[in-house]
Known about the structure:
alpha/beta
Amino acid sequence: MNALTILAIDSSARAASAAILRDGQILGEFFVNAGLTHCETLLPMIDDMLRRCRMNIREIDCFAVSTGPGSFTGIRIGVCTVKGLAAPRGVPCIGVSTLEAAAMGMTDTEGIVCCVMDARRGQFYNALFS
């Protein structure tokens, strides 16, 4: 069985990030918080990361993208970017909850995990996971 290669992006918050994973191992990751809009950073970030990993977009088997909560515009940019990259070859896309993805980093923790994300204007998004 061939290894599954995933390109994952998050554009739901102020910073943008991307990662390439093959069978659960991170091959490359990129994080940008330069004050630019995600429409200015995502594609150059993905292109640079692919080149540094000596990969081509045709090697990606699946795309994952954050679906919120978060910036509505940022989420739309991320989803449209992934759909645009996936559509020409019919590659599957997977939506991932921003807060659930954050909670996955705490899988070895016992008890309840509360993930919190700045929603600006003195508000926040949160979710509890066990």
